[in-house]
Every structure is written in C-alpha cells, then in structure tokens.
Amino acid sequence: MQPDHHEIELTVNGTRYRRTVESRLLLSDFLRHELGLAGTHVGCEHGVCGACTILLDGDPVRSCLMLAVQANGHALATVEGLAPASGELHPVQQAMHAHHGLQCGYCTPGILMTMTAYLNEHPSPSEDEVREALSGNLCRCTGYQNIVDAMMDAAARMREEAP
Amino acid sequence: MKPAPFKYVLASSLDHALALKAEHGDEARFLAGGQSLIPAMNFRLARPSVLIDINALTRLSGIDRPEAGQVRVGALTRYRALERDGEFLRSCPLFADALPHIAHPQVRNRGTIGGNLSHADPASELPALAIAMQARMRIRSAAGERTVAASDFFAGLLTTDLASDEMLVDITYPVLAPRSGACFMEIARRRGDFAIAGVAAVVTLDEERRCASVRLALCGVGETPVDAGAAALPMIGSRLTGDAVEAVAAGVRDLIAPSGNVHASPDYQRHVAGVLVQRAIRTAHQRISHAA
pTM to 2 decimals? Predict the structure, then answer.
C-alpha cells in the first residue's frame, strides 16, 4: 500500500504547528518524534497505563488511542505547557515535588495532565474522589499514597489561588 | 506498536461515510471514539485497509426525545456527554450506575455509545443495558434504513447484526416507567477493568405493589450480553421477599455459562453473578419505594 499522507494544522501549548503526517502515525508518536515534545510518555500503547495522557480541547485523553491526523484543527496541551513560566511549577507539579509523589517519574506527565483537568473541574474533591480520578493512571513505584496526598494539597492551593 | 498502513478518509456527511462503507465493505472500519478499534489496530489484531473517520458528523451526536416516554441517543454521543446530562440520567437511571464502570475518565472523554455497542464486547456494560431497557437500534446503509431490537442486535462474541455496509446511527431507550426502579452493579478486579460479572435490573410494581415485571441482563458472563429475564419470571406477582429473590439468583446461576478468565473461575463468576442479581433487584426495588 502507498503511504497515505495528510496535512494537518494544530495548536500545542499555544503554538501553532503545520505538518504532513502518515495516517497511521499515533498522536503520542507525533508529539514525541515530530514535534520533539518528549514529555508525553508512551507506556502500554493500548490505552491502559495513562502515561500518554494529554488534553484535547481541555479534556484528558489517551494520545496513544488517537491518530495524529485526527488532531487536525484541535488545541492540545501537554506537560511541557503546564508550568506558568520557566523556573516555576504549576501547583500540581509543586505538590508532587513536595509530597514525593514520584520516584521513576515515568507515569508523572500523564498524572499531571489528568489531575490538572480534574482539579479545575472539581476544586474540592474527597480523597476517595481523587483515587477514582487517578484510577486511569498506573504508577508502579509509589503505591499512590503520596500522589493522593499531593493532589489533596494541590487542590487546597488551587482553591487559595483561584480569584 | 504501530497500526498497519491504511487509507484514512474524514467523512464529510453520513451519506459519504455510508457510500465508502458500501464500496469497501469489511476492508473498511468506521472510526468513532477509537477506544477499542485503535488498541486493536496497535496490536494489529485489526488491519482495516480503509478507516472512515465519522467524528465530524456532529448530527450523529446528541440526546433528544422523539416522543413522550422515549430518549434517543445518537451513535457518536460520547460517554462524557451522557455522564454530564442530568435529565438523561434521571430518565435512564441505569446509565448513572453503569457509566462510572466504563474504563476511566480519559477513555470516557473519547469513547462513544455507538462504537461501544457496535464493538459488542461481552464484558461491556452498555450492551447489557440495551437488553435490560429493551432499546431499539436504528441502522443505516447507503441502500436504506432498518430498526432492530437490542435482543436481536448482539449476535456473538464481538459480533452484531450489522452487515458490512451498515452503521448504527442511533439508539432509542424507553424512559423508566412509573412504579419502577433500576440498578446496575458490577464487580471487576480493579475499578474500570473488564467485568467479572455485571447485572442490570429494572423492577416494575403493579398498583398493589406486587412485582409486575423484572428486566434482567448480565455482562461479562458469556459471549454476548445475557438476557436473564426468564430467570426472573417466578418473581412476577410476588412481594419480592428474600426467598423469591434468592430463587431468581439460583435461576441466573443455572442460566449463564461463563468461560472464566485470569481473574475468575467460571464458578466464581457464577457466584458473583448470583450475588449481584440479588443486590441489584433489592436496590432497584428500594429505589421505587423511595421515589413513590
């Protein structure tokens, strides 16, 4: 079969990109290999581990379960765009650091993207609700407790900072 | 893991999508949410030569009420939209119980009801809901349109009544009847995993508050969703006592033939199904009392 190419235009972290992609290129591989945004990690490549979670028009999705061509015309956010400025951290990143919410760090970008979107929509979650929200992101190092602690702290900080 | 090469076409209209499917038949697949199809393509278990992306067909998405007592859901409606529609969840309360069991939020943000039902995974919740609620599926092809009952839609493991040129376009559910209660329950090894067993129950009482009808369907315990309504027949006319409910559970344990998996033996699946049947019927019954 002849390679099937398509021209796409999309926004990632506020930057507009125009690229030609093969139809079978996964969005996760497009972000990493074509745009050099390797903060989005690739674990299982079948939608189970959550490491590749990004925001599509503001909502968390698995970037390994979308084709790059499907992102045409959409606005994406990845972990590279999370911190407000160089040298600063988003409250969710700050809380993960403070509570030792990561060890190897492989799952961390996906967790950060999932939980920033969740905490924006649910500013005062219970611990059970945080665990439920985390259920689509696997972490093999931490046992999750420190991540849950970090998210409860991040929620409190985000409530304080909200106007 | 990379999908095998394919030709990608973004359908510009339903007619366009159906014409492409008629042309390419089984070689082509519709791409909706992609939450089952893309993993299968990543593993190369599915190798379609043409992928017809229907995500731009916004008229296939949404919830409306074609007539009183019915709710119609477009095939491209995402789980996320169903979860956030309070009026829909009040009309079809089985969905309020079942949606949180469907994978995880990231998957529910993309996955669609039509893709779910067309994929026909026997462990999936929504096929069982369609059976329990006696949904009707509207199916289109370039040649015409037909409607089938949910009970005739699920033909086997990952197999439906859809022909190679057809698409499921919407699903019509009756709203919960008066003096009725509904409950869906599921046990999985971890939240969001495939069901070891799941049960959807809809109980309707008569004016003397005796059991007038029970709809019962299970997921995860066979090659298709299982309609267990026959096992509930002894309960009709009863007061839903403990003995009557236990008899239904025994009937369900006899009716199903689960194949077992790495997490559960067939006997354990049968046991779990029986326990869930009792809990779901009791909860559905209690919900009527609370509402009436």
Answer: 0.96
CATH for the B58-174 domain, from 3.40.50.300, 3.30.465.10, 2.40.30.10, 1.10.472.10: 3.30.465.10
Q: Which of residues 67-96 of A touch B (CB under 8 A)?
A: 67, 69-70
Fold (CATH) for B7-53: 3.30.43
Evaluate the CA torsion angle A14, A18, A23, A26 in order and state its sign. Answer: negative
Whether B56 contacts chain A with CB within 8 A: no
Give residues with Cβ within 8 angstroms of B200, minimum separation 6: B94, B98, B125, B128, B129, B131, B132, B133, B182, B183, B184, B215, B216, B217, B218, B219, B280
Best of B106, B119, B194 to substitute, by most chain A Cβ atoms within 10 angstroms, is B106
**Residue A133 forms contact with B (CB below 8 Å):** yes
What's the CA gap between B128 and B184, in Å, rounded? 10
Fold for domain A91-161?
Answer: DNA polymerase; domain 1 (1.10.150)
* Chain segment B241-280, per-residue pLDDT in tens: 889 999 999 999 999 999 999 999 999 999 999 999 999 9
| Cβ pairs A/B, distance under 8 A | 92
Residues of A in contact with B55 (CB under 8 A): 70
How confident is the model over A33-90, as pLDDT tens digits?
999 999 999 999 999 999 999 999 999 999 999 999 999 999 999 999 999 998 999 9
Mean pLDDT over residues B208-237, rounded? Answer: 95
pLDDT of residue B67: 94
Strands A5-12 and A75-77: parallel
Q: Which CATH number fits domain A5-81: 3.40.50.300, 3.10.20.30, 3.40.1210.10, 3.30.2010.10?
A: 3.10.20.30
- Kindly provide the ipTM of the predicted complex, given to two decimals: 0.95
Question: What would the mean pLDDT of B125-151 be, rounded to a whole number?
Answer: 98
Say yes or no for a CB contact (<8 Å) between A47 and B190: no
